[in-house]
Amino acid sequence: MSAPTDRGYHHLVRPQAFLFDRDSTLVHDVPYGGNPDRVRPIPGARRALAAVRAAGGRIAVVTNQHGSAPGGLRPADVVAVHARMERMLGPLPILEFCPHDDVDECTCRKPHPGLLLRAAARLGVPPSECVVIGDAATDVGAALAAGMWSILISAPLSSLSTIGEIGEIGEIGEIEEVGGAPCVAPDLVRAVRLALDGEFGQPVDRGTHGSAGE
């Protein structure tokens, strides 16, 4: 697999590792949700993850959880939620989460690459062989910073597949939201299918269409 470059994405084959955001990607977002009983999978999540496993892909979950900073959730709460997710969605062997808040200026909180690089190291997969799938510009920014591929899940833009198409609309708000993602998918199942099929390595000129959001 060729690595992302400043001028675009090219010659993509199936990635070895799939790094998934958690909230609004695999499960519904519950702010500061540390109660495992409140975990609700996104429709299609179990099927999408099963497809990755069947194809031999390796899986990690990478999530910002500043609620686990002092005064918020405990790290044990995040782990308990993850265990509940595994019972509902199947094995999710690698969990990396950032417990810090924005003011902590850590290097792990997305869009910084720390979480992603730690997950890739634990999986034993080079960053250039990883794809990040998430619903926020911070996921895209972290992927770019880590030298990984990315697919953005963005239902309102479901008819668009590349940054080039988004740029033709001329809506700067939409461009900023998508950031540097080479590909936009309407849902998790489609995002995984694009990655498994190697169909999302579309040319991207980040100088024209903006940089990854924060």
Automatic annotation (TrEMBL):
Transmembrane segments: none annotated. Keywords: Carbohydrate metabolism, Cytoplasm, Hydrolase, Metal-binding. GO terms for biological process: carbohydrate metabolic process. The keyword Cytoplasm applies. It is found in: Cytoplasm. Coiled coil: none annotated. Pfam families: Hydrolase. Signal peptide: none annotated. GO terms for molecular function: metal ion binding; phosphatase activity. One of its GO terms (cellular component) is cytoplasm. Its main location: cytoplasm. Belongs to the GmhB family. This is D,D-heptose 1,7-bisphosphate phosphatase. It comes from freshwater metagenome. The lineage of its organism: unclassified sequences, metagenomes, ecological metagenomes.
